[in-house]
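Worked Example 4.2. Consider the chain below.
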Amino acid sequence: MKGKKKNILPGFGISLGYTVFYLCLIVLIPIAGLFFKASAQSFSEFYTTISEERVLAAFKLSFTASFFAAITDVFIGVLIAWVLVRYDFFGRKIFDALVDLPFALPTAVAGITLATIYSPNGFLGSALEKIGIKVAYTPIGIYLALTFIGLPFIVRSVEPVLEEFEVELEEAAASLGANRFQTFTKIILPSILPSIISGFVLSFARGLGEYGSVIFISGNMPMVSEITPLIILTKLEQYDYNGATAIALTLLMISFVLFFFINLIQYYFANRHKAK
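Applying the procedure from the previous section yields the following structure tokens:
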């Protein structure tokens, strides 16, 4: 009987044990604590908190701005990933490194920079003001900030898939008479679609919880440009822990449901592509 092959890394038992331990410590226990804190409230108190007009306006703004910012990042991010993978040009490595700038840049610095540029006295803000477009201290500013911080998720999700994609499949499609649009929609897009959806989910999730880069450019005006994380922080500063918990739990549950359906869509397209 041959002996078991020894691995350099720890075995399955100890690896699984550490994984479950840290998952519980970092993710499950805080979430369970959130549910436990919320359970101390009655349903009427919980509903009264989350149904306030100001809170509902913040929910609407956070979800819509995050969604449209993530959609914008999909189009821009796929184009950037395509250029970085398919073309060799001077300064390509520098351009590739700049994609990760929103990851490395402190969110407060990003927010202050965007607010300075797009303020009525800023370089771009003053030009836009002349044509009647106000960016800073409006939902448009929030959308731009979320687009900025979410772009790397799309690029870094799509780029590795494009690098591994077989160019011969495109050549075969072209030899069979397919034009460029048909080649992209029938050959390339199905291969990168799961990674696009993954990047969209990450960008959308980052936008929902983003705080630092948004508060400086949003103006934080109630019912106009106030995001949900700011509402939660305001409740905490007022020592209204039950209110902050109720809003945070609602945001968590809505996000979980949305991500569940998005992951189902991703799973469907991934299996459909493998079946082909």
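The radius of gyration is 23 Å. The chain has 13 helices and no strands. Compare this with Example 4.1 before moving on.
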